[in-house]
Amino acid sequence: MWISSRFFVILLLLNLDNTCSEPFEAHLRGPGFVMEPPGRVEFSNSSGGWLDCSASGSPQPTVDWVHADGSAVTEIHGVRRVLRNGTLVLMPFAAAAYHQDVHNTIYRCIASNSVGRIVSRDVQVRAVVAQAYKVDVEVLSAARGCTAILRCVVPTFVKELVRVVSWVHEPAIYIYPSLQGDGKFHLLPTGELLIHNLQESDESQSFRCRSMHRLTRQVVVSSPTRLRINSHRGIISPSVVEHTAHVQVSQDEGAVLLCVAQGCPSPEYSWFTHNGAGPLPVLSGPRVRLLGPILAIEAVTGEDSGVYKCTAGNVGGEASAELRLTVATPIQVEISPNVLSVHMGGTAEFRCLVTSNGSPVGMQNILWYKDGRQLPSSGRVEDTLVVPRVSRENRGMYQCVVRRPEGDTFQATAELQLGDAPPVLLYSFIEQTLQPGPAVSLKCSAAGNPTPQISWTLDGFPLPSNGRFMIGQYITVHGDVISHVNISHVMVEDGGEYACIAENRAGRVQHAARLNIYGTLYSHTHGMHSKHTDAHMRKMLMA
Ligand SMILES: *[C@@H]1O[C@H](CO)[C@@H](O)[C@H](O)[C@H]1NC(C)=O
Ligand SMILES: *[C@@H]1O[C@H](CO)[C@@H](O)[C@H](O)[C@H]1NC(C)=O
Ligand SMILES: *[C@@H]1O[C@H](CO)[C@@H](O)[C@H](O)[C@H]1NC(C)=O
Q1: Which residues form the Ig-like domain (predicted)?
Q2: CA angle 58, 62, 66 (to 5 degrees)
């Protein structure tokens, strides 16, 4: 038996396709994040920072990083690396190597496989160059029997990153922040030290404050400062010297609202809420503690958000301040359904469900993405995305992205699959009558999902395997299959009824037409008998 090597290779490829493509396709799954990077990453130039991102799917997705404008994040030697496992590393750097677009910017992680592409939330990266700073103690002294307030003054350029961790009552008594204090000393959670009930013996005691940088963990201690007792013995009406104007916490965390007034005698504090009608006194309860200058609320909920007022009063008068508490409630974003299979020509509809603690959240700024690219907002009804006349190009990964005014983003992913569609012939050959000698090409093309396979027969039997027959098959970018049978030097015995059969798991379609070659016995015979004879002859030729 003689088979051309080219013909053999093609047969082999078709065979591989037949055995592998369908079970493989059934197991395809679009990417989903296993580890989505956080919304904010802060680090110091000496530590460097890293952003983890990983995704699952079938085939295993690849992970890349992009800038906010969608351009690829490149490696910069000694500055920025993308590890093989998807982690983006921003390396420790010298102050002079600070670059805004590397160290203070937005990154997004992209996971992609053959099914589609998804994009992570925005990651706001902020690197801080460690700078030397000094802290100083400021004493708001008071008269005997009253309260002195000691402040740790942090320079404004690092204020946001530095907190007071303790005070030292010289030589070696450490005082730590607490809600209540010990009756004499009270280090407020915001860093001020209150010294109650001043006595002669407190005069000339020394105090130092210790602060720590949140990112570099560097501890900076002030020089010791002496306490003095005011000789003034009259009444001083209260004035608010420190208050937390805006407290932002996440749901279920504890909130501490604080308001410190200077005055003598020591002021009494009252707290009010400003919700709706007028100021209502805040009452202590299982979650709410009134601790003088501190209002502590445990396990906050969205309902604790609002405007509060503290009032400090003594016989000399009253002072007050307004404070705002904002509770960030987490939201969950989900797309329904999260896998949708639609037939070609059908309509796909996805709904973006935004909930908080299980109940729907009102109008949100919803954006839809397809394979990592934002879709135009036309043709969309609120939270619903409709894809009419679904075609192969609409397959892939869809995302609903909710961006909150505070800047955090939340996203959910869903996959649109094309339902099975039986093959349809897009093009097929016609009957021809020829003289022996020239080359002949027969072509069929078909569409369907999964992409159909095309096979050929002559009078119901496989095509002869001789050097004059060549089968070629390829798949277009649209997923259509095109198949050719080319016969070089057509000969009398090549005449007969040719058929192309397109087949996938959803069905099968066939087209047949005759190729008549002058001077042949076969082209004039039509009965069963002659076909058997043809096949018999062919088998003898092949043998
Ligand atoms: C990737 O590798 C680095 C270093 O080997 C490791 O620190 C990091 O956690 C890994 N990331 C993930 C997503 O597994
Ligand atoms: C970070 O910046 C500080 C201040 O310029 C510098 O002293 C330190 O060496 C830098 N860290 C690295 C790793 O270069
Ligand atoms: C068969 O002929 C057609 C038309 O001439 C050509 O486009 C195609 O590439 C040929 N296929 C093979 C397998 O030679």
Answers
A1: 31-120, 238-326, 330-417, 422-516
A2: 140
